[in-house]
């Protein structure tokens, strides 16, 4: 589904902010774009065998939803730290869920492929996924020619697709990735020029559960190096404050992972930009936690 660009009346003078609310997608996050594109390209034999994917929640729901619409059996491997709201939604779309420790999240799917012949639908390190996520960038560029686009970074599928589309259609626009300080593997990779892996114990410290991937993918990293202008971090406190502001001032229910870009707009040292787009990647937040965020001062 195409999502609108929403102007923020509370943005700073001379720094107009627009939000790209992917939280309004049918499954509550941008992941539906990539999953739908990948599943649509499976042949009849692959569809008959079924698919397997791994995810902390949003890719899981996207694959489950898209598979159900196409009549494909879906098995989703999810870490045992996944918020209950995301587990319930994934099961609700008809997928079988396999719960594993975080360290096994990327291993178990490959074992299931070997055991059952499932088609693997990875969350980000896949050209079909990147192309699907890139439609976010296509929509932004067709609606506006912003000075700056802020994109959340986890495995790198979203920023890969968005940056490729933006640079093709609006070369002057800067694209900056944003991730939590407590899961800053992409920043370290971008700065060093080589893919860096953090441990699950490191990345799972952040409240932004959708951004806990331990490294960017191989294919996304090449996109980052070629098309992305910078990658920066925001603190846990800044993420919570941005989540609160988006709820109170923009009336958007946003999960912490989706609020990192707004946090960057509010608190980071960004290059001058008269117009900024912050991609709000998802809104699948635990209700109890969300009430805590809104209740803070």
Automatic annotation (TrEMBL):
Keywords: Lyase, Pyridoxal phosphate. The keyword Lyase applies. Residues 2-282 form the Tryptophan synthase beta chain-like PALP domain. Pfam families: PALP. The keyword Lyase applies. Its cofactor is pyridoxal 5'-phosphate. CDD domains: Thr-dehyd. Gene3D superfamilies: 3.40.50.1100. PANTHER family: L-THREONINE DEHYDRATASE CATABOLIC TDCB, THREONINE DEHYDRATASE, MITOCHONDRIAL-RELATED. This is Threonine/serine dehydratase. It comes from Cryptosporangium japonicum.
């Amino acid at each position: 589904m195409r999502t609108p660009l929403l102007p923020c009346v509370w943005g700073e003078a001379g720094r107009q902010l627009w939000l790209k609310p992917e939280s309004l997608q049918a499954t509550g996050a941008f992941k539906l774009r990539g999953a739908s594109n990948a599943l649509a390209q499976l042949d009849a034999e692959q569809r008959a065998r079924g698919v397997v994917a791994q995810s902390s929640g949003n890719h899981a729901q996207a694959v489950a939803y898209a598979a159900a619409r196409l009549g494909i059996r879906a098995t989703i491997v999810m870490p045992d730290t996944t918020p209950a709201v995301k587990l319930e939604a994934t099961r609700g779309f008809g997928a079988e869920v396999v719960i594993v420790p975080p360290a096994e999240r990327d291993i178990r799917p490959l074992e299931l492929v070997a055991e059952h012949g499932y088609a693997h639908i990875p969350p980000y390190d896949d050209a079909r996924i990147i192309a699907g996520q890139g439609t976010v960038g296509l929509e932004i560029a067709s609606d506006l020619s912003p000075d700056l686009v802020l994109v959340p970074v986890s495995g790198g599928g979203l920023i890969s697709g968005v940056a490729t589309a933006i640079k093709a259609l609006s070369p002057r626009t800067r694209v900056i990735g944003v991730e939590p300080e407590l899961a800053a593997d992409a920043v370290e990779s971008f700065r060093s020029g080589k893919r860096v892996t953090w441990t699950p114990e490191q990345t799972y410290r952040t409240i932004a559960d959708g951004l806990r991937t331990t490294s960017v993918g191989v294919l996304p990293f090449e996109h980052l190096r070629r098309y992305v202008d910078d990658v920066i971090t925001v603190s846990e406190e800044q993420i919570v404050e941005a989540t609160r502001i988006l709820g109170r001032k923009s009336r958007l229910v946003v999960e912490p992972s989706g609020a990192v870009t707004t946090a960057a707009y509010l608190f980071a040292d960004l290059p001058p930009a008269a117009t900024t787009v912050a991609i709000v990647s998802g809104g699948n937040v635990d209700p109890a936690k969300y009430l805590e965020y809104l209740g803070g001062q």
